[in-house]
């Protein structure tokens, strides 16, 4: 497979960027949640 | 409280599990199992990440516009709509970026260049920059209501670019191929397994989008609450200070 590098890079960039975004988002959410009581979060 | 309960619920945990499973299956089918294309060879495997990324970006920006309209309409006005709009735009920018980068890699293999000022590529880049601008506008100062109003107006204007991007391959002569699955009068001439893998990609990306928007919308709500409590604290401090000076 001559194009393997490009193909693998596509998948790594796709799922890697989603994973990085999700990680950053969760981190920000956890930081914000520290000062917000549980009863104020309607989804819990 | 466990570490991950800030925005998680049993539903999002279950959804996250299915997303991971779907991603794994997509990688296996996309890279190892689905056949090579008659014309494009192995490079067609990039399609299973590129096409769902582009479709999901469209969906995300349309959801942003619909939520923005719901915010602007007095009967449904709620900051929840504004947060959904913001979360969806952010995730849409992510997917559009993915689509641009994977498209560029695919273009290098099929056209021999990473980038060309082709109508589809140029309009897509313009759409991407527009929504980065939308996110920047959301970040400007003011109350939550001011943020919601100005970004809702912008979202309703920005979404008008989507038909231009989508039909750019019909309006102009472009290097980019026309719609091969969901176009008008399109006869799908694709191997069954390739079509299935592409469909799986769209499903997995859609579930991923729902998971990301649910979490981001909740995270934005927490940030807004934090903002409000910060403002309340500052006001209370000022009142206490004024009382001390008065006494």
Helix content of chain A: 55-70%
List the domain count of chain B as a whole number.
1
Low confidence ranges of chain B: none
| Estimated share of beta-strand residues of chain B | under 5%
Helicity level of chain B: over 70%
Key words describing this protein structure:
heterodimer, A: 44 residues, mainly alpha, 1 helix, 68% helix, B: 247 residues, 74% helix
Polypeptide structure, described:
- Chain A has about 45 residues and is mostly helical.
- Helices cover about 70% and strands about 0% of the residues of chain A.
- Chain A is built from one helix and no strands.
- The longest helix of chain A has 30 residues, at about 5-35.
- The termini of chain A are far apart.
- Helix content of chain B is about 75%, strand content about 0%.
- Chain B has one domain (about 10-175, about 190-245).
- With about 250 residues, chain B is mainly α.
- Chain B has helices spanning about 10-35, 45-70, 80-110, 120-140, 145-160, 160-165, 170, 190-245.
- The mean pLDDT of chain B is about 90.
- Chain B has eight helices and no strands.
- The interface of A and B includes residues 28 and 44 of A.
């Amino acid at each position: 497979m001559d194009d393997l590098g490009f193909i693998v890079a596509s998948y790594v960039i796709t799922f890697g960027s989603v994973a990085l975004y999700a990680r950053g988002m969760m981190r920000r959410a956890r930081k914000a949640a520290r000062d917000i009581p549980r009863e104020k979060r309607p989804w819990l | 409280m466990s570490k991950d309960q800030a925005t998680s619920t049993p539903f999002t945990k279950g959804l996250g599990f299915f997303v991971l499973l779907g991603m794994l299956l997509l990688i296996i089918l996309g890279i190892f199992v689905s056949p090579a294309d008659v014309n494009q060879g192995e490079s067609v495997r990039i399609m299973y990440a590129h096409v769902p990324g582009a479709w999901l970006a469209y969906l995300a920006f349309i959801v942003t516009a619909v939520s923005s309209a719901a915010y602007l309409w007095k009967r449904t006005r709620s900051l929840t709509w504004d947060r959904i709009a913001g979360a969806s735009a952010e995730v849409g920018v992510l997917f559009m970026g993915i689509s641009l980068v994977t498209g560029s890699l695919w273009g290098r293999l099929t056209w021999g260049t990473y980038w060309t000022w082709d109508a589809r590529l140029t309009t897509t880049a313009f759409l991407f920059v527009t929504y980065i601008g939308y996110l920047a506008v959301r970040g400007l100062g003011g109350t939550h209501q001011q943020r919601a109003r100005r970004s809702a107006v912008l979202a309703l204007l920005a979404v008008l670019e989507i038909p231009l991007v989508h039909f750019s391959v019909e309006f102009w002569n472009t290097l980019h191929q026309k719609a091969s699955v969901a176009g008008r009068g399109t006869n799908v001439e694709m191997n069954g397994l390739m079509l299935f893998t592409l469909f799986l990609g769209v499903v997995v990306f859609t579930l991923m989008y729902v998971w990301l928007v649910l979490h981001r919308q909740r995270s934005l709500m927490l940030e807004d609450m934090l903002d409000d409590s910060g403002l309340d604290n500052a006001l209370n401090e000022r009142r206490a200070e004024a009382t001390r000076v008065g006494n």
